[in-house]
């Protein structure tokens, strides 16, 4: 047998012996005209049933028909001339029979070496690799066996490539999914934006040059699955809501439990994903019912014990519960007999409560109409949070947070634990001190303002569901455990909060750390089902937002809004796109919480006056403490001098208006806020003029 060598490296006899040992059919052929067989290994010669000399003497084209000869010439052009790989079906003669097998054609360059070791000319050729017939038949039998098992299985089974595209599925899967389009191409039914950047077929950058990734529950589940399936045999399980197309053209949302396992393609050796789907919609309904019952029990044991029946009832109504149990055994009379409520025993509102003597308590759930009417106005800029405080019996934050979370469908979207969410809200609200200004009612006011900015403030293209969750959660905790002292006071007095934060935004740092400690408690961790990567991103957003409420950062953020956002939006050549970068989303959320934090400036006049007077009283209280400690009394905090209510025009001119002018330039839908601020501003200007005239 003559020796062959490639240009680099040279194939010597030891290499040829190695090729003889492999269980694959390997041949080397010069496809140029006239074609010549150059070399074949033992496996090929045995499969075809000829000797090596007979193989060399064989006329490669003599037994081929016209179509096969055309394919031969095409291989010559693509592989031997253009030097490209090619995979296609090939016809191999076995005795009197011709067998179709898959063949891999690759370019090669070899040299003839005579028996004296002298190198001859370099020959361009094609190396062909095929499965031996016996192994191919074994694979076919194995495939038929596996296919029969797949078809007989009563469970929906599918096989996907590792880039998420369907290879095949069994009849049970077709019966379950029907005409569901996503089954044709994707494991989790993701859109192109969701899949962006996951594989080379869907690049991360769109044709317009913008980075457009839609981060959804399905994409997060896909990424977690790919991370879990890092080794052969590994598995992953998740429940996802999937839309199913019915034969009558209708569609329905159902919960699909997806079990994925990493397998190996027996032919190519490439990793594939075996997916088993199970409809768990009814199971989820049972789980939800159990959660509802658990919620009811928690409400009985905790909320009703801590608060009067009206407040417990308001929460239960919002949770969709039948709260007749509140009236069993004279709960209302017990709650009222301890002196709570109005002095004469009259219920808080004829619309929102029913007296203990009302009929039909045991047959009809009570609806707190006053509270509901108040919550219906939560979508309006002129919302009166003091009405909510009254209607919710002093628990405005719990009630409003539940309301807006439901309004944005966040509990279902992120599978939030409802029981733990109520525990978290109750703990956060109870952690707010009875300050004149920085109290739970102010926080509820900020949550409502953030809700309005998210829904009709014009920032829709900058926020997805996760950003909405972050915005509302940050608003809920942004003043947690506030003691009524500003950062400057805490730093000057070397307060523990300042020491812990190294004098960096001591209030805001404490609000965050203490809130996240609450969230870490098992009974309050309503985010425990959230994927780790998503939870980390949420935490980062919340931290960035709460830290932005430090007035020491005010001008820096206003400046960033001008340079990084306003100028880009005003530049017609700068297409931010439908999915702006994360840094810009964070900046918008920071601006939104700053707008919401001073939202009383665009509240109805009476509400604004009340908040201004409360802020003045709180600042005077800090001044009282500074005076007791013989410290220099801070600006506007001396009771014996004009306070906040006498300096509102200057505060609006130098602090408020730069923020709102920039914000409304970026988001024209919010211009109504400037108009409302101007109305309150004119009032303070008139008071200022009146004061000046009196002095004159």
Defining traits:
6-stranded antiparallel β-sheet, 5-stranded antiparallel β-sheet, alpha+beta, 696 residues, elongated
Report what the structure shows.
The protein has 696 residues and is α+β, with helices and mostly antiparallel strands. 49% of the residues lie in helices and 14% in strands. It has helices at 13-21, 42-48, 52-57, 66-81, 133-152, 171-177, 192-195, 217-228, 281-306, 309-318, 331-337, 369-376, 385-391, 396-407, 410-413, 418-430, 440-456, 465-477, 487-492, 496-500, 506-520, 532-548, 554-570, 582-597, 605-628, 648-666, 671-695; strands at residues 3-6, 25-30, 36-40, 86-94, 97-113, 119-130, 157-161, 166-169, 235-245, 251-264, 271-279. The strands form two sheets. Strands 1, 2, 3, 4, 5 and 6 form a six-stranded antiparallel beta sheet that branches. Strands 8-7-11-10-9 form a five-stranded antiparallel beta sheet, with helices on both faces. Strand 9 and strand 10 form a beta hairpin. Helix 26 (648-666) packs antiparallel against helix 27. The longest helix is centred in the middle third of the chain and has 26 residues, at 281-306. It is elongated and about 120 Å long.
CA-based gyration radius: 37 Å
Name the helicity range: 40-55%
- Number of strand segments: 11
Q: What kind of assembly state do the chains in view correspond to?
A: single chain
Shape: elongated
Percent in strands: 5-15%
Straight-line N-to-C gap: 120 Å
Which runs of at least 5 residues are low in confidence (pLDDT < 50)?
A: 1-9, 181-185, 200-212, 302-367
Mean pLDDT: 78
In terms of structural class, how would the helical and strand content be classed?
alpha+beta
Q: Count up the helices.
A: 27
Main beta sheet strand tally, sense and closure? 6 strands, antiparallel
């Amino acid at each position: 047998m003559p020796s062959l060598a490639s240009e680099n490296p040279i194939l010597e006899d030891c290499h040829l012996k190695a090729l003889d040992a492999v269980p694959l059919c390997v041949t080397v052929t010069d496809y140029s005209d006239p074609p010549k067989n150059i070399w074949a290994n033992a496996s090929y010669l045995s499969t075809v049933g000829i000797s090596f000399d007979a193989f060399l003497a064989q006329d490669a084209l003599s037994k081929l028909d016209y179509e096969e000869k055309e394919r031969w010439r095409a291989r010559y052009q693509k592989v031997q001339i253009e030097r490209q790989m090619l995979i296609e079906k090939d016809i191999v003669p076995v005795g009197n029979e011709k067998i179709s097998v898959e063949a891999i054609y690759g370019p090669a360059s070899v040299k003839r070496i005579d028996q004296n070791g002298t190198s001859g000319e370099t020959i361009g050729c094609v190396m062909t690799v095929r499965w031996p017939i016996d192994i191919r038949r074994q694979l076919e039998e194995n495939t038929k066996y596996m296919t029969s098992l797949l078809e007989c299985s009563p469970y929906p089974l599918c096989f996907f490539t590792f880039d998420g595209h369907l290879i095949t599925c069994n009849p049970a899967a077709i019966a379950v999914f029907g005409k569901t389009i996503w089954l044709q191409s994707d494991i989790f039914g993701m859109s192109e934006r969701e899949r962006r950047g996951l594989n080379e077929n869907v690049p991360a950058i769109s044709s317009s040059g913008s980075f457009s990734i839609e981060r959804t529950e399905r994409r997060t589940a896909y990424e977690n699955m790919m991370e879990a399936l890092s080794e052969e045999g590994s598995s992953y399980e998740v429940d996802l809501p999937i839309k199913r197309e019915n034969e009558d053209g209708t569609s329905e949302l159902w919960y699909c439990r997806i079990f994925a396992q990493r397998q190996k393609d027996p032919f190519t050796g490439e990793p594939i994903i075996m997916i088993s789907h199970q409809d768990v919609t009814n199971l989820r309904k049972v789980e939800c019912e159990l959660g509802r019952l658990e919620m009811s029990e928690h409400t009985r044991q905790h909320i009703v014990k801590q608060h009067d029946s009206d407040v417990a009832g308001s929460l239960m109504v919002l949770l969709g519960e039948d709260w007749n149990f509140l009236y069993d055994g004279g709960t209302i009379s017990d709650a009222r007999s301890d002196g709570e409520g109005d002095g004469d025993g009259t219920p808080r509102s004829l619309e929102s409560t029913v007296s203990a003597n009302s009929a039909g308590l045991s047959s009809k759930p009570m609806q707190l109409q006053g509270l509901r009417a108040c919550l219906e106005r939560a979508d309006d800029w002129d919302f009166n949070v003091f009405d909510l405080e009254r209607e919710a019996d002093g628990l405005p934050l719990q009630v409003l947070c539940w309301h807006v979370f439901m309004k944005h469908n966040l509990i279902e979207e992120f599978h939030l634990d409802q029981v733990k969410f109520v525990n978290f809200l109750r703990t956060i609200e109870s952690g707010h001190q009875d300050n004149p200004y920085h109290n739970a009612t102010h926080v509820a006011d900020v949550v409502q303002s953030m809700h309005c900015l998210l829904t009709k403030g014009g920032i829709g293209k900058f926020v997805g569901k996760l950003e909405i969750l972050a915005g509302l959660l940050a608003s809920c905790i942004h003043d947690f455990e506030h003691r009524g002292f500003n950062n400057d006071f805490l730093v000057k007095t070397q307060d523990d909060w300042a020491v812990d934060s190294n004098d960096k935004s001591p209030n805001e740092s404490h609000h965050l750390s203490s809130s996240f400690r609450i969230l870490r408690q098992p009974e309050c961790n309503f985010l425990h089902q959230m994927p780790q990567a998503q939870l980390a991103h949420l935490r980062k957003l919340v931290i960035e937002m709460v830290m932005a409420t430090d007035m020491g950062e005010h001008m820096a953020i206003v400046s960033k809004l001008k340079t990084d956002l306003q100028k880009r939006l005003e530049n017609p050549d700068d297409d931010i796109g439908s999915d702006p970068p994360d840094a810009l989303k964070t900046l918008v959320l920071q601006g939104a919480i700053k707008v919401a934090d001073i939202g009383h400036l665009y509240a109805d006049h009476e509400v604004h006056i009340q908040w201004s007077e409360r802020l003045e009283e709180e600042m005077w209280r800090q001044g009282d403490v500074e005076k007791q400690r013989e410290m220099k009394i801070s600006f506007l905090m001396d009771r014996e001098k004009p306070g906040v209510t006498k300096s509102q025009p200057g505060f609006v001119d130098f602090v408020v208006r730069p923020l709102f002018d920039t914000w409304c330039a970026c988001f024209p839908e919010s211009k109504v806020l400037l108009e409302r601020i101007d109305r309150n501003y004119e009032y303070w200007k008139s008071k200022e003029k009146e004061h000046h005239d009196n002095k004159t």
